[in-house]
Amino acid sequence: MLTFEEAVRALAALDVGARATRVERIPLARARGRVLAEDIAIDQDQPGFDRATMDGFAVCLDGQQRSFRIRGVVTAGTTFEGTLAPGEAVRIMTGAPAPAETTVVPIERTTFEEGQATVEVDHVPDAGRNVAWRGEDAHAGDVLVARGTRLAPAHLSVAAMAGAVDAAVFQRPVVSVVTTGDEVGGTGAAAIRDSNGPLLDGLLDALGADVQRRHARDDEGELAGALEDAAASADIIVTTGGVSMGTHDLVPSMLDRLGFETVFHKVQVQPGKPVLVAARGDGALFIGLPGNPVSVLATAHLFLFPALGHFLGGWAPRWIEVPMASDYSHDGRRHLFLPASIETGGLRPASWNGSGDLIAAAAADGLVELPVGATFRAGDPARFLPYIGHSIGERAVLPPRQR
Which residues does the UniProt record annotate as the domain MoaB/Mog (predicted)? Predict the structure, then answer.
């Protein structure tokens, strides 16, 4: 059985061949959530001119003089034709080009009346105040959005400012999810509602994958048919359940007939020890997740998403360090990834009823990494992986037992 670190290295070494370089160009308006395949560089200095940062008067200083002759008005989108001599000024609006050698005095620091020829300022400002200088944010040719960025609205705004109208992005990998089990979606007292399918639909959609989903009962023929259909078109086949040691855990036996070779099966982690990863010569991958819903949530973040990153220019989920809110020790025998919430005071691991307690896990903000034997004092930093598609702090208020 691999350690978590060994499994991470094995995932990083996967080779998906030409599937890793499939790129398309789409309008910026449709690029949110996609992974950028080429750097976006700005085509001009930003700002492109010396820009007033507030409404007021652009004055050409003349020693300690506080009275300036008004030469005109400059609004956003217009320019002042000519130059100002010392002791002269123009009325200027936020965002307008400031004439050369001027300083902007805020409107509230001036005294004037409409139509009069001069403006009085209540102080002599430092030269160059309230002006954003040409190129101070970026110079023409600077990369503003780097390859591998998952495009959020702010990135799209910066890209548009840089002059881009479209973006080269990695094509959406096709992920076929096959949930398994007689108990899932059935009827009767022992039936279990399908929570894994919607979970993976949402997570994979947030990551920019095209998701196909089907269900197979614990029947060798039905499962084989579902997996063969999935293998015909998918870049990644994802199964939930059927990878452990039970009599109905049929997934591992299907790999040979589908042309996949096992990379690893079982990792020393909790939850999700039975996770399975396999690869095929044409670059397709097979990720077998356990059936327990919290195990699916955890192993999707720990193993599925790094595998998906091979189709997205090497993108990977981002771990951060967050201080622990209180003392915590892990005396278990496996590398633990425990749901935890970021709260006032730091990171607080969930109080849960084990890896079947989806309610407590879903109320958390992500997973805290707790190696075997780890001991934390309040304030010690811990590695934390935020849930994909989840806004930290936007969670249900749950009873104390589950928090």
Answer: 176-310
Total domains present in the chain: 4
Distance CA 175, CA 194 (A): 18
Residue 140 included in any domain? no
Residue 137 in domain: no
pLDDT in tens, 123-173: 998 999 999 999 999 999 999 999 999 999 999 999 999 999 999 999 999
Separation in Å, CA 16 to CA 12, 164, 214, 275: 11, 30, 24, 20
3-state SS string for 293-350: HHHHHHHHHHHHHHHHHHHCCCCCCCCEEEEECCCEECCCCCEEEEEEEEECCEEEEC
Q: Are residues 328 and 341 in the same domain?
A: yes
Distance CA 263, CA 246 (A): 21
Q: Based on the domain organization, do 33 and 152 belong to the same domain?
A: yes
Tokens of 399: 């009873």
What are the φ and ψ backbone dihedral angles of 301, each rounded to 5 degrees? -70, -40
The residue with greater pLDDT, 29 or 194, is 29
* Same structural domain, 153 and 73: no
* Residue 234: pLDDT band with limits 50, 70, 90: very high
Q: Are 384 and 369 in contact (CB under 8 A)?
A: yes
CA 339 → CA 197, 249, 270, 333, 391, distances in Å? 20, 26, 11, 18, 15
**Burial, 184: exposed, middle or buried (Cβ in 10 Å; 0-12, 13-18, 19+)?**
buried
Is residue 139 in some structural domain? no
For the record, the structure tokens of 86 come out as: 């010392």
The answer as to whether 138 is a domain residue is no
Which pair of tokens denotes residue 95? 């965002």
Structural domain range at position 354: 320-402
Cα-based distances in Å from 163 to 43, 117, 260: 6, 40, 45
Find the mean pLDDT for residues 308-315: 95
Cβ atoms 149, 36 nearer than 8 A: yes
Q: Are residues 184 and 242 in the same domain?
A: yes
| Whether residues 306 and 224 fall in one domain | yes
β-bridge mates for residue 56, sequence order: 92, 106
Based on the fold, state whether residues 73 and 123 are members of the same structural domain.
yes
Structure tokens at 28: 């910026």
350-403 residue pLDDT tens? 988 877 889 999 989 999 999 999 999 999 999 999 999 887 766 555 545 444
